[in-house]
């Protein structure tokens, strides 16, 4: 079987699962939420990286049923984690191919209703490149998604070409600084200047700002000095299996 044929069967065979990477408030060190990340374990292919199969899913349109499964599964977990009154926020990645799905917003609404998740605790991450490639139509779609009560963040920020006008107009609540800039923090001064500029830009636009790919204490110290809100990265935790999440939260209290 080709990889595509294998991917077509992955859903019905139960080969997909979500893992969750904590996002932590810089000031308090508390877990504020997670990013949900898709994993595919196949008998023949082993564990296939999303870097490989997400583009395939996008090309073939499989991202539509897979994206619906991702959202339903994540909402189901989030509703359970928050059942005791917690208000963890979980972010799901949206592919630009899903923008073409006619019933995208109704599908999202169904997920929220069926799982009973608090929409205010759900977030979608959309890459800056995806947003800017189709600025005009995307605008209305973002407003429709936002009207569900969910939050929106711009992923991999700093790698695309957002106009300030677009940033101001899009109904987004958060910027995620691309990890390429975080990687070079402490190594080159340009990266520190870029990160500082993004944090200031977010402040001025009243957006929250998250650093991704934090791997060292040095990077964390620099981010703290810049008053970045939250961070995510291997330094705190790699993405973990769903059943590990409650213990991780408990240990972080
Ligand atoms: O999990 P990992 O860090 O290997 O992810 C690699 C890439 O795959 C990232 O760009 C991430 O955004 C993307 N990705 C992971 N899970 C999902 C998902 O559920 N949906 C979409 N559209 N992209 C995902
Ligand atoms: O593009 P997106 O931000 O959705 O990508 C998330 C990806 O980043 C996942 O594949 C995740 O495994 C990866 N990731 C998360 N933390 C780190 C980190 O500290 N270092 C590196 N190199 N990758 C990370
Ligand atoms: Mn992401
Ligand atoms: Na990212």
TrEMBL record:
It comes from the Bacteria. Residues 1-253 form the EAL domain. This is EAL domain-containing protein. It comes from Massilia litorea.
